[in-house]
Design brief:
The chain is α/β, with parallel strands linked by helices. It folds into 2 domains: about 20-115 and about 265-305 and about 320-460, Vaccinia Virus protein VP39 (Rossmann fold, 3-Layer(aba) Sandwich), CATH 3.40.50; about 130-260, no CATH class. Helices cover about 40% and strands about 15% of the residues. An 8-stranded mixed beta sheet has the order 1-13-14-10-9-2-3-8, sandwiched between helices. The chain has a two-stranded antiparallel sheet with strand order 4-5. Strands 6-7 form a two-stranded antiparallel ribbon. It binds S-adenosylmethionine (SAM). S-adenosylmethionine binds near residues 89 and 94.
């Protein structure tokens, strides 16, 4: 095993800062190479576009709601997935829709109620009659809208900042018309998904990075400056804000309706379960032929933060504690998860943590503990996957990350986790290289090659 030098100490006698960081970087490279040497790597550039959302975001059905974390259903063919498919982190259902369209049985699990709602609406064919009802609802807008509705805001502290008053009023009028129309519940869900999907477009916010940003400020080097009130709104929403919302809704509903043609007679409706894959919920199918998933990456991004507007306004979260509960139950990929849960020890991870820069904010914020929790959760999920896998393989799409001058090789650590969970073979298919964040570039110079997005292939 590699001899590990102790953690960087800015004041260690006899070593200059530069000598010291060069030594750390050599140690880091040594550890990364050593763990890489345990596995077989294959270059799979052909999968690069399929492991993220870029190739699917404008595709029929998938375009119904923006879910930046999604991957492509074409992975089914590219990975040669067999038989019954399980995606235990199914998000908005990319894999489930891909399977359904190919007439294949699939099951999806996700913790986020908005994601499973969207996955269900996208993958549950409506009857001709229901589609007709929705079409005529769309045609009758805005006449069917109530003139006035009571102002409603969900109980989160910044809810009032999310929409201009006229926009919020129009949204609430549409929501009320949807709730009271005489259609089936499934048809109303279809309309509700359309309503949720346009919130960002008509809102004063947009999703970026690890959260949301406001449209009324502009980024300047090192700061944000306020845009002129009244001017930015006119530029963004035009003179008639009510018409802006109605157009967005009618247009998006038109897109959704056009895509319903894809629900063909051999469509195989998936089973979708809202729950945590850490305690595998009970599923109709006891065994699967292929398991595929992309867990949240170990990058501190909290999906519940970036989706909070849709979660609150969409009615999936009613109280602060609901959101806290979701954050706590999620995989330990962000600092609001339950970091106090049990941890398993990973020697390689401990060696890497030893090399982290103690003065980095990620160290102070508790990233080492987060990483320990993250890979413990991955082992737990993989144990369930091993148990559910009949034949075939389990494919895990993961991205490496970097904190405090250290690279987290999530692909090799996931491969190690797979072996610990009872799989007998683990290979790594590298799909593409990831960029290093600007603040990490200097300390990771020469090690960029370890920043990879890969598919870890685990075989029983
Ligand atoms: C990278 S996304 C997967 C996106 C999905 N492949 C798609 O195409 O839409 C990771 C998902 O893991 C979910 N998640 C986080 N913790 C979870 C848990 N404990 N159990 C199940 N799902 C979880 C998140 O809600 C998120 O939807």
């Amino acid at each position: 095993m590699t001899q590990i030098h102790k953690a960087r100490n800015k004041n260690s006698p006899g070593q200059t800062g530069t000598d010291e960081s060069a030594a750390t970087s050599r140690n880091l490279e040594q550890i990364l190479k050593e763990v890489d040497s345990k596995f077989t790597f294959e270059k799979r550039d052909d999968l690069a576009k399929l492991v993220n959302w870029s190739s699917t975001k404008d595709a029929p059905l998938h375009r119904w709601i923006r879910y930046r974390e999604a991957y492509s259903p074409s992975l089914i063919d590219a990975l040669g997935l067999d038989g019954r498919i399980l995606d235990p982190f199914c998000g908005c259902g990319s894999m489930l829709i891909g399977a359904a369209a190919r007439g294949r049985l699939s099951t999806g699990i996700d913790l986020n109620p908005l994601a499973t709602f969207a996955a269900r609406v996208k993958s549950s064919p409506l009857s001709k009659r229901e589609i007709r009802d929705i079409k005529s609802f769309n045609k009758s807008l805005p006449q069917v809208l109530p003139i006035d509705v009571e102002l409603w805001l969900p109980e989160f502290s910044v809810a009032h900042k999310m929409f201009e008053p006229v926009i919020l009023h129009t949204l609430l009028r549409i929501r009320s018309a949807v709730a009271t129309c005489s259609m089936s519940e499934r048809a109303r869900d279809f309309l509700h998904l359309c309503w949720i999907a346009i919130l960002e477009e008509v809102g004063n916010y947009y999703k970026e990075g690890n959260g949301i940003k406001y449209r009324n400020v502009q980024r300047r080097p090192g700061k944000y400056v306020a845009k002129e009130d009244g001017v930015w709104q006119r530029k963004r929403f035009g003179e008639d804000q009510e018409a802006f919302v109605l157009n967005a809704f009618v247009r998006h509903l038109g897109v959704m309706l056009a895509d319903t043609d894809l629900w063909h007679p051999n469509w195989c409706e998936p089973e979708i379960i809202r729950g945590s894959s850490l305690n595998m919920p009970s599923l109709t199918e006891s065994k699967f032929d292929s398991i595929v998933f992309s867990p949240p990456y170990a990058n501190r991004f909290d999906y519940f933060e970036s989706m909070k507007v849709e979660l609150w306004f969409g009615g999936f979260v009613k109280e602060k504690t609901d959101l806290q509960e979701l954050r706590k139950s999620s995989l330990r990929s962000h600092l609001s998860s339950d970091l106090a849960r049990d941890q398993e020890e990973f020697e390689t991870l401990e060696q890497l943590i030893e090399l982290m820069d103690r003065s980095a904010s990620s160290w102070r914020m508790g990233v080492p503990n987060l990483l320990r929790g993250y890979f413990s959760d991955i082992v737990e999920v993989l144990r369930h996957c091993r148990d559910k896998l009949d034949s075939g393989a389990c494919y895990v799409v993961v991205g490496n990350s970097a904190f405090g001058g250290m690279i987290v090789p999530s692909d090799t650590l996931t491969a190690e986790a797979g072996l610990r969970a009872g799989f007998r073979e683990a290979d790594i298919w590298v799909t593409r290289h990831l960029t290093v964040a600007p603040q990490q570039r200097a300390s990771l110079a020469g090690l960029e090659g370890f920043m990879r997005e890969s598919v870890v292939v685990l075989r029983p």
